[in-house]
Amino acid sequence: MIGCCLKAKHSAMADSSSAAMLAPQSTGLSEVLDRSFYELVKRPTFDLVESLIISLANCYDRAAGESGLAEFRAQCQEHPLHRLVLECPFTRRAFEKPRGYAGDAVMLDYIYRPTIESLSDAGRQIFSATTSVSSAQSIAWRRDHLGTEIAKTVDDQANPKILSVASGHLRELDVVRELTSKRGVSIDALDLDADSLNEAVNSYPDFNIHPINKSITHLLKCRSRATYDLIYSAGLFDYLSIKVGSALLKKLLELLKPDGRLIVGNYATDNFGRGYMEGMMDWSLLYRDETDMTDLIRNAETSREYRTYRDTPMSSISKFRKDGAD
Ligand SMILES: C[S@@+](CC[C@H](N)C(=O)[O-])C[C@H]1O[C@@H](n2cnc3c(N)ncnc32)[C@H](O)[C@@H]1O
User: Fold this and answer.
1) Which residue's CA is the closest to the ligand 1 atom numbered 25?
2) What is the whole-number distance in angstroms between the Cα of residue 165 and the centre of ligand 1?
3) What is the CATH number of domain 136-272+284-321?
């Protein structure tokens, strides 16, 4: 995907930087929190924040393995470090959940369309790290990927119909604008957040967007069939249980034309930011690896061919097409 230029610096697996060296696997959570607080108050740097994110991912894995995520969150959020990380607006918005859940479309704009805010030194370093490490790059990568797929659909087909499920601000249309001048496309944008839909419609008056201010329950009950050339959903399946996720997949496949494509994204189990997101941002997701994605697809009882693949930074994405091709 287009975000590959961001890959090298913050790839968690390949990173042998000083930040990674500062984060031994065995460090306990209290020690991580105490040490990070002490160092970040003294002299906040990007590398220290990255080191904290790596350490918290290790602690998260241990806590998850012992069914101790509630305690992990409590320990993170009761520590004085938590008040410090809330100086980062990206972290704060997830934690405070003004729209009732973490990861709303406004939050994602901190990654897609960063603006300069007046922040404390610590807030600036934390913001810079949290919105650019590989878990954030995955979000930008899938926006670029989806934009490329939409542009291809618009260029290759006459008046295609597209459905975006949990559409947020539809920022993938920024990419489409760069890739094609064609606008002969109809986009149904479904999201339960009316403000996000308004922002999408106002941001892209050059596109034919039909906002559908409903939850996925509306789709699950809908009786139409074979309507769309392209359906995609990013930033939703990580909130859905296997039961609901499979039911939704099944329905989306019914809504797809025989030669249409469905693209669904889900954060992978080794998402770089999993510990920081859970502990500091109170942003709990259902992480899935390739096997989990395959289970979702199997439960959807589809005969369509599919391919499951990873983005460059971390997320896994499943993609369907009648012939299984790209
Ligand atoms: C993480 S944002 C993703 C937005 C956009 N797809 C993107 O990737 O930038 C999740 C979006 O899902 C929407 N959402 C969450 N649960 C939903 C549901 N049950 N039905 C419809 N939309 C939902 C939220 O309102 C939010 O806009």
Assistant:
1) 193
2) 7
3) 3.40.50.150
